[in-house]
Each structure stands twice: as structure tokens, then as C-alpha cells.
């Protein structure tokens, strides 16, 4: 029997990237972001996936998530893709695809790397020059992880919980990580590593392409 791809390892965090078709926008108004988060939370709960960090950019999404079952990530992303496309198509009287058809997933096997991944995700709006500080961007998990703001979507990882004995201590320690924002070389290294070990989820692509 052929070995299952490492992408399906339950209990291992994954950095997920979902992009708009041809890099076109997939969010057009505040209500679209809110709807995506609502759909994502439902899909994560139904497929037993924990979301540790996220950012919704104009034309793509970054997630850091841990599945409890082998197909948790694939099923979650299929659910999100299908329901959100239906919502956008109804809202804007459009038809056809919204996503590029495949999401990319990179295993995050190092505990130290997990916190770097969280920081990379939540600093996306800063690198894109949309805001000067991550706390100024509404559509990310930074407020929950660094500020202790309630966010029902976010479930903390044990690496994050190890930052302090209390919620306040953990949030403060996490904020300290952002005092040393990603240097350009670190960011490039992160992207190169993600590219090398990333996997294209072909089964999800075929399903979503046929449905959208």
C-alpha cells in the first residue's frame, strides 16, 4: 500500500494559502470578510480543525491550522470554498469561479517555526503597506493573539500557551515578538521554505473546480 502524503498527518499544523482566481479580489466589502470568517468557523468545527492564526487579505487568505483527522483540512477548505463562492455570487450577481482552484498547504513541524509562521501571517497587511502596525488591521487574528481580544475562531496552540502562565502574560510575550518585525531576508527565507515543502491539494482542486 502506498504511503499517504505527509500533508494528511493529523495533529501537525499547516500553513494554508487560498488565493483569488488570477490574483483577483475575493473580498469586496466588510460583510464579505465577516461571512468568510463565519463560514470558516463552522467548517473548522465540523471538520475538527483548530485555527491558530489567520489573515484575510484583499485577494488571498492565510491560515495556520491543525487538523485532528487526516482529511480535516481538505474537507474544511472545500466547505469554505463552496459556501463562500455561493455567497459572493449571490451578493454580486456573478457566476463562475472565485478561487484559483487549489489551496496550498505547508506542514509546520517545528515548534519554533510555528510562532514565526503566526507572525508571518499576521504581518501580511504591514508588508503589503496596508497598515503600519498589525493591530490596525481588522481582518486577522492579531487582536486575539496579541491583545487578548475574544475571537471564537482562534484556538491557541500549545507553543503559544507556553509563552506565559496567564492569558495576559501570553499576549504580552507574543506582542514582544513583533518588536522585531520580520527582516526582508527572514521573510524571503520563509517563502522559499514554504515553496519547497508545499503541496498542491489536487483532490480539492478537482472538486472545487467542478463545483465553481
Task: Describe the protein in words.
The protein has 212 residues and is an alpha+beta fold. The protein has helices at 30-46, 72-91, 111-122, 124-127, 142-147, 158-161, 167-177, 184-197, 202-211; strands at residues 14-19, 49-56, 60-67, 104-107, 198-200. Strands 2-3-1-4-5 form a five-stranded antiparallel β-sheet. α1 (30-46) packs antiparallel against α2 and α2 (72-91) packs parallel to α9 (202-211).
Strand content: 5-15%
The averaged pLDDT comes out at 85
The CATH topology label is Alpha-Beta Plaits
Shape call: globular
Helix content: 40-55%
Number of domains: 1
In CATH, what is the homologous superfamily? Transposase IS200-like
Order of helices and strands: EHEEHEHHHHHHEH
Instruction: Please tally the helical runs, counting DSSP H or I stretches of 4 or more residues.
Output: 9
CATH architecture: 2-Layer Sandwich
Q: Which CATH first-tier class would you pick?
A: Alpha Beta
